[in-house]
Amino acid sequence: MRVRTNSTRLVGQVLSGEVWPPLADRDPYRLDPGGRPFLLPGMGGVTLGMGCGEPATGRRGDHVEPGLSVRHREEEADRALQLLACVGNRARVVSGRAEGAEGFVVGQHAYVLVEVPPSDLERVSVGDEVVIMGRGQGLRLLDHAGIRVKNCSPELVEAMTGGTLADGRLEVHVTMAIPPEAVGAGSGMSSEYANADLMGAYPGLAGEFSLGIEGLRIGDFVALEDQDHRFGRGYRAGWLSVGVVSTGTCLLFGHGPGASTVLTGPADAFHVVLDPEANLGSLPGLGRWGGGR
């Protein structure tokens, strides 16, 4: 049975921001987990070749954000953009050479991350304005009182594989189950802000650093075991959070590909199915700019 929600009672708001440039410190070098300095592309700007379904790991980058990195110039307006934009919300470029290009929100990080088609992506410039149809905060699952929805558009819930089972559990499809020891930077923060970095996917540093998550892709749904993300992000045995991988490779120790939370609740409220195709870009009517793959 499909999931019943209160989507007809939600309020939508038009949110706006602009494509933010990459930024750098005066001393550009950082250290990887082995203590070696590096200088690599990172957050911000327009990032090519990292859309949904593309590898999130193994890149020569640091805190890499896919597609368009969008924020608002005013601090309080930017907070609203971060908190109200939900995964799956529609987005449109409304200025510059790519005016009219449409896409969707992949997740949050330092910026709100928007995917648009590659043919449009190459025409976007830093400073172009992006409008996001923010809708999803306040969403509830009517038949799953123990599960909290986070940063998730009604369209995403409708498109996700699975649904309400006869035994009352919610079936969710994920590409991978992430052990709690892999959850790094982002713990202790609000689960409506940025994302949770997943440690242990450091390029060229296998063995003691590896936690078996090197195969993650941008847009993958993942199950974060023993994670309670209702009122922040933290460890709680017997709980589960479902996230969407929204950022890629990071070489800083304690960091890694990041997952934006969309669902959280007691583990026994879910029926988790491992599915290699469980990716945001593969969802009919939502992924790959509205048409599925």
Written description of the protein model:
The chain is mainly beta. It has two domains: 116 residues, Thrombin, subunit H (Beta Barrel); 143 residues, tm1086 (SG structure) fold (3-layer Sandwich). It contains four helices and 19 strands. A six-stranded antiparallel beta barrel has the order 1-5-8-7-6-9. Strand 16 and strand 17 form a beta hairpin. The two termini are 24 Å apart. The C terminus is likely disordered.
Which sequence of SSEs, written as H and E, runs from N to C?
Answer: EEEEEHEEEHEEHEEEEEEEEEH
Mean pLDDT: 91
Portion in strands:
25-35%
Strand order of the largest sheet: 1-5-8-7-6-9
Shape: globular
Number of helices: 4
Beta strands, count: 19
CATH domain fold name of the largest domain: tm1086 (SG structure) fold
CATH architecture descriptor text of the largest domain: 3-layer Sandwich
Distance between the first and last residues' Cα: 24 Å
Helix content: under 10%
Q: How many domains make up the 3D coordinates? A: 2
Q: Class by helix and strand content?
A: mainly beta
Poorly predicted parts = 289-293
Main beta sheet strand tally, sense and closure: 6 strands, antiparallel, barrel
- Determine Rg (CA atoms, Å): 18 Å
What is the CATH superfamily label of the largest domain? Answer: tm1086 (SG structure) domain
